[in-house]
Amino acid sequence: MEKYKNLFTPIKINNTVLKNRIIATPCGVDIVKAAKGGAAVVITHTLPMDYRNSYWSNEPYAFSKYKVEAVKDELARVHAYGAKCSAELLHCGAVVKVPEGEYALGPSDMINDRGCPVKAMNKEDMDGVVDAYARMAREARELGFDMIFMHFAHGWLPAEFISPLYNKRTDEYGGSLENRARFPLRILEAVRNAVGKDFPIDMRISSVEHVDGSIEFEDTLAFIKMAEKYIDSVQISCGLDMGFNYEGNVTMSTTIFEPHYINVDYASRVKKEVSIPVYAVGGISDPDEADELIASGKVDMVAVGRQFVADPDWPNKLLEGREDDIKPCIRCLQCYHIATEHRNMGCSVNPEYLHEAWMTSEDEIVPNKEAKKVVVIGAGPAGIKAAITASRKGNDVTLIEKESECGGMLRFIAKEHYKEDIVRYLNFLRKQLEKSDVKVLYNTEASPEMVKDMRPDHLIVAVGSSEIRPRIPGCDQDFVYSELSAIVHEEELGNRVVVIGGGTIGAEMALGLAEKDGKEVYCIEMTDKIAAKGNLLYRISMNQHIRKTENLHIYTNTACRQILDHKVVIENEEGEKQIECDNVIVAIGVRGNRDLANSFYGITPKTVIIGDCDNVRQIMEATLAGYTAGLNT
Amino acid sequence: MAVGMKSKTDEANSFYGYVQDTNIIGDANRVGTIWNTAEDGYYIAAHL
After folding, report:
1. pLDDT tens column, A59-76
2. Which superfamily does CATH assign the domain made up of A480-588 to?
3. Per residue in A106-143, pLDDT tens?
4. Distance from CA of A224 to the nearest CA of B (A)
5. Nearest partner of A306 among A336, A326, A273, judged by Cα
6. How far is A614 from chain B (nearest CA, A)?
7. CATH classification code of A364-466+593-631
């Protein structure tokens, strides 16, 4: 394996050798699939420990008689694929939601974001938590786990003691870093004593928490040095997982507005100061980038989360020389329950995710005994997925596309700022289409008559959406662009731009033009919320960037009345105002081509409408609809 | 003398690095029961 030799070189942690440098992190990842897919180590999801309110809703102890067999079964399945399994030990501390009359434990008294009381831990509480950690670690080793993963990041209990954000104590456990470190170090010492000196202990920690008043990197580094005698490797993360209105979540699980591998620079600085292996997590999804991070000596390993959701087989695909077949994570965060506010979870590129119970896996598609003739109209993300899937079912598939290239709306989105991951996904779809047996008719506008003559058994209609043209006086002037034409002709835009419409596309465009290109940008939105259809963390992340971009001016609850000569007239509760500009971008969204799609009914009873023409939604819904439509052929 | 057994960890580890699909099973991985060794051997061989 010459190309990715750095990723696939074994490394020794304590006296355990890992077969490669790829660690699957617990972020909704199916750890058995990640093990099967080639990860060297999979880290379990949180294993609730046996101490009061360490986890949500009085979850029983993970190794209690009610749960231990399930844990052991999962462990056996991980081992069956040759991966090491690391047991995540985590006390959630001050951020948990507790039943009425109960209290959460933390370093200091407070009321948490869920409205629950938090009690400052006394000596008895500390002894109990330390014992619970030690017992769990000992039992994890006895059960056959290969490593212990000490989660000291993201604002969980140990991090709450280390960080001044939560720790307001004035006793020997608060104040100076030495004091704040005292209790977390007691936990580490107890765990080391419980598992013995020859058993690997890994620790995750946040370099910084990205919230005002939180820990400084220098303190984190100093803590790691104090902890080094108890641990065998350290994973560098950042941010918070709960609390403080999720402002720290958007760096813990990066959105598209943050760069890839956000924690590597900090990890690299840690690596220079310690003698144990150091690795980073956070936005590492591109195998070439991951290999280079190790090759450059910045980190010793990589921890990967969402890419394992997108494609659990990605390490094995690298080993087999199938890079083109790796479904790339687009960091949409739909797989993260907090981002989606526990609604509409899934994966934009992996339709099986969370549907495993009923959906045929892409690896298990069985070709039909008799090939059927399938026609797919429209080569956007839904249409391509449907065509490829129908082809894998052994059908004779024709994909009709009116443009000269495939991709649909993704062709435009991929040209925007913050969309490097969409570029990868578009390239993935294009390569998959090239490798398939699908016949693609480019530059061909499908009509019902034409499709009828093709006599399809199955017809899948994915004719997409069109821009909504507003009824704003003056919007037909030559300095006014539609959102798609503005993306294509961005170089024509002047330095003062008004974007009418603060939906996801309009707001992203406004932010990109201001933050990346330095233009003076005004974004006009009729509702009270910017990017209302984006998920929670996407919106938080976007707003963090908006707040930092002084040359971006957001007007919510504001209507655009008319467009004069290089002036936009807006109106809100403060009255009417004119904004001078070089260009206007009208970005009020798209509407599904429903009438066009409906016109294809009646050719074959097996007709299905998918993607934006059915309902304008996100890539995730398009992929799911395309995959299931293809499966049903 | 009956002070127990110790895994031949170092010897086992020395075989890493030749092929990616390398597994250490049985007592070399951890000194356990016949059940553990049977489970290791069966599941890993079955999933190759």
Report:
1. 789 999 889 999 999 999
2. FAD/NAD(P)-binding domain (3.50.50.60)
3. 999 999 988 999 999 999 999 999 999 999 999 999 99
4. 28
5. A336
6. 42
7. 3.40.50.720
